Amino acid sequence: MATVPQPGFNAPATAPAGSPAAPAQPQETIDGFQLVIEALKLNGIDTVFGLPGIPITDLTRKLQAEGLRMISFRHEQNAGYAASIAGFLTKTPGICLTVSAPGFLNGLTALTHATVNCFPMILISGSSEREIVDLSQGDYEEMDQLAIAKPLCKAAFRVLNAEDIGVGLARAIRAAVSGRPGGVYLDLPAKLFAQTMEAAAGKASLIKVVDAAPRQLPAPDAVARALDLLKSAKKPLILLGKGAAYAQCDADIKALVEKTGIPYLCMSMAKGLLPDTHEQAAGAARSYVLPEADVVVLIGARLNWLLSHGKGKTWGGKDHKAWGGQQYVQVDISPQEADSNVPIAAPLVGDIGSCVAELLKGVGSGWNKPPKEWIDAIAERKNKNVAKMAETLAKDPSPMNFHSALNVVRDIVKANPDAMLVNEGANALDFTRSIVDMYKPRKRIDVGTWGIMGVGMGYCVAAAVVTKQPVIAIEGDSAFGFSGMEVETICRYNLPVCIVIMNNNGVYKGTDVDPTGRDPAPTVFVKGARYDKVMEAFGGVGVNATTPAELRKAMEEAIQSRKPTLINAVIDETAGTESGRITSLNPSAAKKK
Question: According to the model, what pLDDT value does residue 399 have?
Answer without folding.
Answer: 95
